[in-house]
């Protein structure tokens, strides 16, 4: 194993914050400590257990597994490629090439996560900002349906609530106000103290309407139990913000059928104030996938490439190309899953459909889904055993520099090899 | 967090002055400030009737490695290494204005709190505002912890 000559700091691929100040301590050729990273990052960085590739549950060498995967994909009429949110942008681009080559459907976790919000941001329909702007300027933070203390543990210490910034020099208790809006108390809402607003599930839209009324001086009305005075207080804080940021969690996104209400609310709010929105995407490079596919096709996810009669590629997009619909309707005849685990992230009723189709997995870690997979190809851990680029939660590109070289192929090269075989 | 009344209620409350203090309350205050030890109260240590309270007090004030001289305890099993306390601590901010004050990796060796391998660790605790004669009841690291992992005894 080779240890790379690194900058002083490494980047953590534990979540989409991509913390860039991690100090690694080595013991021989092993990573001994990952300092400054949170516990989530540490477990990601230090888990470098070596696993073998498999065909039908039996260990094989990686080339055999790649060959078998290529054979299955070549023979497929309607393949589906899913995942890629824990891969570098370089690997994502190769996977899009592969999807074009084999006329596949391609989708990622954003399909049932923050896809609609990222899409609106890429189309300039929602005002956003960078995390560095949050640190330097934000005076009002709203965690809406989000629990960063668990999902993005260092968000508050590194960028949002606690650090000093250019125009935020006096410390969090004087300079910033943090608000949590959620259906239950969380490790993040406790930090907001009196500014925690508990609302019933799916009443986020109603609260937005009430706040909009309050902005324009009308009496806010809601059907659930909350004091009018509290809504008025909240609307006042929002209106008076110099630089506000809404961290939109899945709780907010899932409460809406579309994102029109969120867009309208932000527009309304910004006639009085200066608010930005950052979607709390989870996987470290989900935004990278959305950006890469958007650049290629104009869509952030749910795309199918189809060869037309003249031999050119048509791009199809729609709900029917989402991974959930595809699996539910038993559309794909081969599925390639890269760096994600449907059996932990999807309803079991959908994930179990994978048992009925040839399934190929490219993953450095052991996953539940691999128990039913026909082929498992072990890849290097990106950001730890191989490098590349990734896009942070706020759209900033961050370079991942490998810490160790295990000699394992990264998913980018595995996908290239599959394409060569095909 | 233990307060002075809790400590006082565990003491004999006889104001016997054997410890050299004028009242049990004064002893409780000094115990919290770590100026005296539980064993300096000879009745609670030696008399059978106080055996349970003696045990409780020694547990509260046990001088293990986990408890710093400033009385800071980090419950490592609850800590997620989020670093809120590291950045919020006013002593850290003044010692490391270019590092932890900005939410970045520490650039100074003088910081009191830092995250090592996913868990917060304390050092230089004599710099803590709760330490020594001039101490104040700063609670920046306690109120910013989302998991109640930090406590002062
Ligand atoms: S907050 Fe996310 S990126 Fe930062 S150290 Fe923790 S897991 Fe890694």
From TrEMBL, chain B:
Residues 70-99 form the 4Fe-4S ferredoxin-type domain. Residues 1-59 form the 4Fe-4S domain. One of its GO terms (molecular function) is oxidoreductase activity. Keywords: 4Fe-4S, Iron, Iron-sulfur, Metal-binding. This is 4Fe-4S dicluster domain-containing protein. It comes from Methanosalsum natronophilum.
């Amino acid at each position: 194993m080779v240890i790379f000559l690194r900058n002083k700091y490494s980047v953590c691929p534990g979540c989409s914050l991509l913390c860039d100040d991690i100090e690694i301590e080595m013991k021989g050729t092993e990573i001994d400590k990952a300092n400054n990273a949170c516990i989530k990052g540490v477990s990601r960085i230090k888990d470098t257990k070596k696993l073998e590739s498999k065909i039908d549950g039996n260990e094989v060498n990686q080339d055999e597994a790649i060959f078998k995967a290529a054979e299955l994909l070549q023979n497929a009429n309607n393949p589906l490629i899913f995942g890629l949110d824990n891969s570098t942008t370089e690997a994502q681009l190769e996977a899009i090439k592969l999807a074009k080559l084999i006329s596949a459907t391609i989708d990622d976790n954003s399909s049932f996560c923050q896809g609609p919000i990222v899409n609106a941001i890429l189309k300039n329909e929602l005002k956003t900002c960078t995390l560095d702007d949050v640190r330097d300027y934000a005076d009002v933070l709203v965690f809406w349906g989000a629990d960063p203390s668990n999902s993005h543990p260092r968000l508050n210490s590194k960028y949002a609530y606690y650090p000093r910034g250019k125009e935020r020099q006096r410390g969090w208790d004087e300079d910033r106000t943090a608000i949590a809006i959620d259906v239950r108390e969380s490790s993040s809402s406790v930090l907001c103290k009196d500014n925690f607003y508990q609302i019933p599930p799916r009443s986020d839209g109603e609260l937005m309407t009430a706040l909009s009324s309050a902005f324009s001086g009308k009496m806010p009305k809601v059907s659930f139990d909350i004091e009018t005075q509290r809504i008025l207080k909240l609307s006042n804080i929002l209106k008076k913000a110099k630089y506000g940021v809404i961290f939109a969690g899945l709780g907010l996104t899932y409460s809406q059928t579309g994102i029109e209400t969120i867009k309208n609310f932000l527009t309304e709010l910004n006639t009085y104030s200066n608010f930005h929105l950052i979607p709390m995407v989870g996987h470290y490079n989900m935004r990278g996938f959305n950006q890469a596919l958007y650049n290629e096709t104009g869509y952030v996810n749910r795309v199918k490439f189809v060869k037309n009669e003249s031999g050119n590629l048509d791009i199809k997009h729609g709900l029917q190309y989402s991974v959930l619909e595809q699996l539910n309707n038993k559309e794909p005849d081969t599925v390639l899953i890269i760096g994600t685990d449907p059996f932990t992230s999807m309803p079991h009723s959908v994930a179990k459909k994978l048992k009925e189709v040839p399934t190929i997995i490219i993953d450095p870690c052991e996953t539940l889904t691999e128990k039913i997979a026909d082929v498992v190809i072990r890849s290097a851990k990106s950001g730890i055993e191989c490098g590349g680029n990734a896009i942070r939660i706020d759209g900033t590109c961050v370079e991942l520099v490998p810490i160790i070289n295990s000699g394992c192929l990264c998913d980018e090269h595995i996908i290239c090899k599959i394409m060569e075989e095909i | 967090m233990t307060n002075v009344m809790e400590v006082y209620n565990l003491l004999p409350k006889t104001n016997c002055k054997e410890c050299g203090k004028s009242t049990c309350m004064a002893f409780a205050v000094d115990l919290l400030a770590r100026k005296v030890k539980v064993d300096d109260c000879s009745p609670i240590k030696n008399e059978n009737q106080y055996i349970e309270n003696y045990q409780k007090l020694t547990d509260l004030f046990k001088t293990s490695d986990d408890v710093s001289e400033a009385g800071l305890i980090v419950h490592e099993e609850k800590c997620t290494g989020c670093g809120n306390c590291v950045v919020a601590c006013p002593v850290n901010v003044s010692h490391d204005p270019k590092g932890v004050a900005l939410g970045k990796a520490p650039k100074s060796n003088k910081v009191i709190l830092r995250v090592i391998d996913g868990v917060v660790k304390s050092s230089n605790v004599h710099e803590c505002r709760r330490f020594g004669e001039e101490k104040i009841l700063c609670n920046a690291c306690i109120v910013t912890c989302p998991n109640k992992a930090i406590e002062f005894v």
